[in-house]
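Notes from the 1:1 (GR / supervisor)

We went over the backlog. Supervisor wanted to see one worked example end to end before approving the batch request, so GR pasted a single chain during the call. The sequence is below; no edits were made to it. Supervisor asked that the structure be written out right there so they could see what the output format looks like.
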Amino acid sequence: MTDIRRTVLWVVFTMSLVLLWDGWQKHNGQPSMFSPPAPKVATVAPAASNGLSGVPTAAPVAGAQVGLPNAAPAAAALASEKVHIKTDVLDVTLDTLGGDVTRVELPTYLTGPEPGLFDPILQAVGIKAKSTVPQSPVVLLDSVGHSYKAQTGLIGSQGEALPTHNTLMTVAPGEREMKAGTNELVVRMESPEQGGVKYIKTFTFKRGEHVIGVKHEVVNVGAAAVTPQVYVQLVRNNVAGPGGTAFTSTFTGPALYTDKTKFQKVEFKDIDKGKVDILKNADDGWVAMVQHYFASAWLHNDHTPREFFVSKVKGAVPDQYAVGMVFTLPALAAGATATHADQLFVGPQEEEKLSVLAPGFELVKDYGIFAILAKPLFWLLEKLYGILGNWGWAIIALVVLLKIAFYWLNASAYKSMAKMKAVGPKVQAMRERLKDKPAEMQQEMMRIYREEKVNPIGSCLPIFLQMPFFMGLYWVLLSSVEMRGAPWIGWIVDLSAKDPYFILPLLMTASSLFQVWLNPTPPDPMQAKMMWFMPLAFSFMFFVFPSGLVLYWLTNNILSIAQQWFINKRLGVQG
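Structure output shown during the call:
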């Protein structure tokens, strides 16, 4: 038993150090040992297209390939107009070249430099500190650098050259900012006649909503009947947005949902390898681009046939990916008009709000493999927040409730630890006496455990049984945008950011070491040293973890220490 435990302990310790080093490398922008290096951000304007037959590629830029279907001349891009729309929760830039949504800022979600360790001292002596630098709104969609757009257009069923996201449109005059007392803002764009049709796109913005209504009107101004198709797509590069921790990455990339296949994430690397297996046709569903805390999505809740696509962009700019849907409109006789309405969501992953926008839409909030446990835990955490009014205290209250729920299970483990600690001196004396007789030592150790009614693995099983619940809570805290910018007390002004003064990580380290002191000392001196060293090695992770996660682990440690100390005292076990 001792040899097995020693081997397992060394394997866990070695792998932990490897993973810690790999996480630290990724945190500092170095390539991971287990995945290819992150691609560099493109510095030129993005191309936008997809691999679905008939959907055009982007308008060419200088040096790009020519002869693309429906491609507008390069001069059109220079002549396009940027239309800036401002609501209370969105700051949007529309481009009259195709009516693309090329930039979206979220003014109610700010980002900026984290406070420095010596900021209070610097401010006291009149030096500008990092924490005094103004925060700026989160930018989700952006056509510069980040390369992330929402696009729509038409496809001709017989190969007609219809208006696309490469077609220069004109914008109707009107309000561009939502004034006080108004709850809706409408922007209308119209294309010139192309392929016998005119394409009219109407954007509707509503107060307090991250959903933009997009209505497509197709007018047949020609003499022949046409059967147009409307496509909607999200195009972005494969550079992951900020999020996760230095040791736990969160998903960035396309996602789809249908009632038949449910939620499906698609990795960029799988698109590169051509290993995309999705349902191509359905009567329901939506598409999205997902990243930590935020998402964009095209939603269409009517039961209407649609075709899904996910692909790598074919164009002059590398590493561009598209996800979208295509809808076929009814045949239009000369002079007839058809309409089609979609919704474009660009905003935070607020689970309760997402669930009412479309079936399964709340699944863009990534809980990893612990979703089945994380969802009810978040529900409970949200209820506690409603009572306490502070996410930090809600985290503490939730850990307390979990500790109460698992009290008897933990008590069994801690009793086993206490008994192990009590027989520790007897085992140590026996090891010294039989150090040259390993086989006899093992037999004598088993005899002592039987006589003292000690189960060496009795302290492990209860902990393993409850670990999934605590890992589920870990993912709740990592994935919930509600923690972003949420204060707790004093110096903790953002539970999603690391502790600027490292107070919580230091307390976490101290509590972990105190737990080691309470636990039974392993008979093997090398194991005993490792038991003291491992908390120090692992604690270095907590210095870069979001403070909400550290608060959760610290609270769990303190409650565990209190329970174990109580059991040790009741059993008469001395420290």
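Supervisor's comment: Residues 188 and 202 are 4 Å apart (CA to CA).
Batch request approved.
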